[in-house]
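Service request form, structural biology core

Requester: graduate student, group of Dr. S.
Request type: structure prediction, single chain
Budget code: on file
Notes: please return the result as structure tokens.

Sequence provided:
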Amino acid sequence: MPTWMVVEDEQDLYDMILAMYDMLGIGGVAFATGIDAMDWIEDVERGLEQDIPELALVDIRLPDDDIDGVHVASKIRKSKKLGNVAICLMTAYKFSPADEKEIVKESGADLLLYKPLPRFNELEKILRDLVKKRRTSS
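Core staff response, request fulfilled:
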């Protein structure tokens, strides 16, 4: 069974994304804070976690003062074991096109989505396409 990751602090959206993963037959690795996600990434690097996701859906704004979704995504992208994971950032905050470009570059993300997220079928297609594109580019 494939696994997808989510890092989201808004409980309702967190639960909805995990329910969507379940409906799609996808295992979920989920975190509500950047600190927890970073700790898990470090565990993966040390070989303590074996469940490598093929996608990470990461909220940019997280409750941690020092660790936001851009930092989490960047850590994933630089990881030897997670570096080829498809990364989709999400946010409810609107950025200028220049800021969007900088965020995507700094994080190594494949895509930035704005909340509210697309409807179920459209979101599924977007995320599956990201995974497929990342697989074929490696």
